[in-house]
Write a sequence for this structure.
């Protein structure tokens, strides 16, 4: 067996059905969707409109509420910084959680340097934001609460509907980075009740370089553009539309929603199979994140006395993800594992297995085999392991 | 994690000097050190002859790929050398031997500290 991809939270392979609808827009249908004077422009515009409708349908909103961006990082920036810069925002207090994606954390830090005050909410030991902590943190100065729908590292699904209801009752804007939710768990923007939500195509077997911010009608006048220029995307995001990618995003959304339920069942069964095999073979293995209510393809484990990067490197030709460690440039362990209270070798030993659309049972069993062999080898090298097996400690 | 140097990768994937020494050496020196910037730990054992030659070197290491690779590199470098040569090995030697860069250099510091703690003060 060759290379095995178990990093679906990072990115996903492009579905051939998605590529098929994109291809003509790289070649013969290359027009600019803003060129209103000829057929090239018209057919591009038509394609963008069609894709916008597909995305909107998948998310339970109207087409006019979908703002295409270059991806979720830009969508998060537009939601957070764009609402901060709106003249009618009211206060300067922002609420986020400790387990948000870096694109939210860094945008919040950027705004702190421009006069915003930021409350970063703690999470419980499964990575969940408690709605009551959101309610307690909201002040008269709060203009926005931004909490992710599902965590990209440990797969925790947040009680985002409850959080959105609290925000609505208090008259505070609510945004959710829902990148990991789309196509994995039900996420209808209107039902969830958030004012804004960010999405990205490449997390659901669509192309890279395209995403969207859903801005519901009620939030439209509380946001200003971050990219200046033409009047594309209802004046909220200037720049020539990336037509092939938008077309692909539309199709990817359609497929992800249509196949979500069956895929979630299949992938979570493979995930559970991997977990059970590893648990049966390896002592001192700890699940990070919740045992229930987690993303279907997410398994995040810490192996006592095994450093994550060494394990990842030892799993030759298996693509998994570590939460960053001492050889990365910032020399910091995962902020998510830190937030859920992991310490010592469990903090440095976290590995994320991300299963997805093309993961097979055969691959899952092969990954389990390689992980068991690598963990046993690394533990045999570890000066800490003999001590731990004599005196096992709780995480 | 960016793509590791092949010198690091090969030593992590197939370590040759991991484990404990057999007990049939005239003299055995042991040392241990922990990285100052992270949780990496190396325990080093040197099996020597009466004349001060290092016959075998073994390590137990918990840590990142550079940490394991550094311990492997050091053990390979030490075998067949004298204790005096061992004393002169430096962080720069390990860094150069493995192509460690930036924050990876902590791995070289840890194994050289383990070596220093293993060697008798009289060498």
């Amino acid at each position: 067996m060759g290379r095995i991809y178990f990093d679906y939270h990072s990115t996903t392979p492009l579905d051939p059905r998605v590529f098929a609808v994109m291809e003509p827009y790289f070649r013969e249908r290359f027009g600019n969707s803003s060129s209103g004077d000829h057929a090239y422009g018209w057919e591009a515009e038509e394609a963008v409109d069609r894709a916008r409708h597909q995305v909107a349908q998948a998310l339970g909103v109207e087409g006019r509420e979908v703002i295409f961006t270059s991806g979720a990082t830009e969508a998060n920036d537009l939601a957070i910084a764009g609402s901060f810069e709106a003249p009618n925002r009211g206060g300067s207090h922002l609420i986020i959680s400790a387990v948000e994606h870096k694109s939210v954390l860094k945008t919040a830090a950027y705004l702190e340097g421009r006069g915003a005050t930021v409350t970063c909410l703690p999470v419980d030991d499964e990575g969940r934001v408690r709605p009551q902590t959101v309610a307690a943190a909201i002040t008269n100065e709060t203009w926005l609460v931004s909490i992710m729908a599902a965590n990209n590292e440990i797969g925790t699904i947040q009680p985002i509907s409850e959080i959105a209801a609290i925000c609505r009752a208090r008259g505070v804007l609510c945004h959710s980075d829902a990148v990991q939710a789309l196509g994995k768990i039900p996420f209808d923007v209107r039902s969830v009740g958030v004012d804004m939500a960010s999405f990205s195509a490449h997390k659901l077997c669509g192309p890279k370089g395209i995403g969207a911010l859903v801005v519901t009608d009620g939030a439209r006048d509380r946001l200003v553009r971050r990219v200046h220029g033409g009047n594309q995307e209802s004046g909220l995001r200037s720049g020539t539309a990336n037509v092939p990618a938008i077309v692909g995003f539309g199709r990817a959304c359609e497929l992800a929603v249509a196949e979500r339920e069956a895929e979630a069942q299949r992938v979570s069964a493979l995930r559970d199979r991997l977990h059970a095999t590893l648990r049966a073979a390896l002592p001192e293995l700890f699940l990070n994140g919740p045992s229930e209510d987690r993303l279907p393809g997410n398994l995040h484990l810490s192996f006592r006395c095994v450093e994550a990067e060494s394990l990842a490197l030892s799993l030759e030709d298996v693509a998994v993800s570590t939460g960053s460690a001492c050889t990365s440039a910032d020399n910091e362990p995962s902020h998510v594992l830190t937030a859920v209270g992991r310490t010592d070798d469990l903090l440095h030993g976290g590995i994320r297995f991300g299963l997805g659309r093309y993961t097979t049972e055969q691959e899952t069993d092969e990954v389990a085999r390689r992980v068991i062999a690598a963990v046993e080898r690394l533990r045999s090298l570890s000066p800490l392991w003999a001590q731990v097996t004599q005196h096992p400690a709780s995480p | 994690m960016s793509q590791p140097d092949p010198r690091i990768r090969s030593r992590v994937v197939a370590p040759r000097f991991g484990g404990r020494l057999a007990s049939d050496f005239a003299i055995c020196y042991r040392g241990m050190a922990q990285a100052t910037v992270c949780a990496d730990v190396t325990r080093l054992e040197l099996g020597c002859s009466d004349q001060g030659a290092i016959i075998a070197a073994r390590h137990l290491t918990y840590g990142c790929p550079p940490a394991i690779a550094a311990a492997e590199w050091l053990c390979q470098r030490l075998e067949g050398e004298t204790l005096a040569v061992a004393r002169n090995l430096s962080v720069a030697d390990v860094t150069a031997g493995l192509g460690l860069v930036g924050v990876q250099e902590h791995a070289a510091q840890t194994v050289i500290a383990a070596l220093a703690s293993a060697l008798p003060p009289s060498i």
Summary: Chain B has one domain: 6-118. The beta strands of chain B are 27-34, 41-48, 54-62. The helical segments of chain B are 6-13, 65-78, 83-88, 91-98, 105-118.
